[in-house]
Amino acid sequence: MEWIKKYYKELVLIFLSFIITLVLADWLLHFTRYHSVFTRLAFPRYYFIADEEMGVDIAPNFKKETHSFSDFTYDVWSNELGCFDNPYNNETPYIYLTGDSFAWGFTPFEDKLGTKMESLLNTRVVKCGVPGFGTKQEFIKTSRDLIRLPKPELIIVDYFSNDALNDATFPIDTVYKGYRVPNFNKKISEGEAQQKYDFWDKYCVFSMPAHPALQRIKCWFYNNSVIYNILTKNLRPALISIFPKQILDKIGIVISVDKYGNEISPAEQAEQDYSSRASFATHLENIKNFKTLADKEKTKLLFVLIPEKGEVRSSGNDQTFQNEKIKPFLEENRIAYFDLLPVLRQYEDVKTRPLYWTIDGHLNIQGNRLAGLAISRYLLEKNIIAVPDRKEILKK
What we know:
With 396 residues, the chain is α/β, with parallel strands linked by helices. A 5-stranded parallel beta sheet has the order 6-5-7-10-11, with helices on both faces. A hairpin with a 4-residue loop joins strand 3 and strand 4 (73-76). Helix content is 47%, strand content 12%. Among the domains are: 1-28; 70-169 and 292-395, SGNH hydrolase (Rossmann fold, 3-Layer(aba) Sandwich), CATH 3.40.50. Helix 3 (113-121) packs across helix 15 (365-381) and helix 4 (135-148) packs parallel to helix 11 (280-297).
């Protein structure tokens, strides 16, 4: 150990240099796209508000704020309707666009598919998609908005494969201290739910941890360190791929996790799977409710089927994908739909022209532009909406 005594000053300096470099690197990473590793900061704080009926909604009149997402940084805001859109100034005719995160955007506002449609068609598009919404939530929000708005010329519902699961777990989310969190109130008392949220705020887990002091330290790093999040999120899959389940159980790693990264037991996973199957009939009723609403409003309705990234990059019509399963139901109930899969599959080149973000699973800027163009062309070709200079726009 003589060499340690001889060089301890140098070793201390090396150690301190390493720590300072690590801290500086972590701080700098906060200003990059890696900022998105913070789950609770997936959206700006207070962007969502709790809603008694829907679980959550976008807060009305949220002031413009620059936010870093997984692949890109851009401004987000909301209007008086709680929509990522400009204020609605009673423009008519207009198209009402609803859906989940694909309709919401996950791309700069000027490149959103709804914004591109608006400019291409010279027709106001009220863009009211909400990330994480299922068909039931979309229907509730649309119904509320149409009470306040004039009759739309067309209602467009952007439909994505996880809409059925979101309906099965409805309402899956609520808001706590400005953060979007799981909604426990449907299973336990309000007091018990509040306790879980308090645990989450203090320990980053929803129950009292076995080692509170250690968990608080881990929670601090989880909330503040980009490097810690990157390491833990990449280390976990590596451990799962290397070690058998028996060892993982002993060291406290459960393979099943929910959408927030919280570990769930096999029993809870089975319950979620069963819930998804048992609720599918209700999901179909939620789709039919849109037709009933459109008939009541005496307006047109169109479902736009948005494919998953894997579906675009596969060959043929794989019946395991949700959009293929839903088509017969739409046809049977005479609900018009437009499938984006063929056009996205035709134009995407993973290396030179990807249409989805690299990290995030949503359509990127190119994908949104193409989707907006394809939907607009479909509306004009089928003469679904009346647009001045329709033939000239189609030529362009």
